[in-house]
Amino acid sequence: MLVGDGNQKNLREAEWITEIFEEPYIKAYVAGNLDAWMGAAGFDAVETREVWWLHQVTSGVKPKVASVRAERVPCSVACSHGGH
């Protein structure tokens, strides 16, 4: 996954920029850490790179989840619910 957004580190250092934009969650975004959020969401190999001064691109890979094998349930159990 790639996320392009404002550079959190530089926005923290230039707080006046957060007053210009009328984004409702900009202060929470600036105070947070996108790398940590993506890690908490299960992404691996999370990396953020600065693009110019005001932007950042964060990438991460979501590992494949092993498929869960369905168990066969005997009809006597499955069919007993619902009275049919």
Briefly, what is this?
The chain is of the alpha+beta class. It is built from five helices and three strands, in the order E-H-H-H-H-E-E-H.
What keyword list fits this structure?
alpha+beta; three-stranded antiparallel sheet; 84 residues; 24% strand; 33% helix; 5 helices; elongated; single chain
Characterise this structure.
With 84 residues, the chain is an alpha+beta fold. It has one domain. It is 33% helix and 24% strand. It has 5 helices and 3 strands. The chain has helices at 8-13, 16-20, 26-31, 34-40, 75-78, and strands at residues 2-6, 44-51, 55-61. It has a 3-stranded antiparallel β-sheet. The longest helix is centred in the middle third of the chain and has 7 residues, at 34-40. The radius of gyration is 22 Å and the shape is elongated.
Reconstruct the topology from this structure:
Layout lengths: L1 E5 L1 H6 L2 H5 L5 H6 L2 H7 L3 E8 L3 E7 L13 H4 L6
Antiparallel strand pairs: 1-3, 2-3
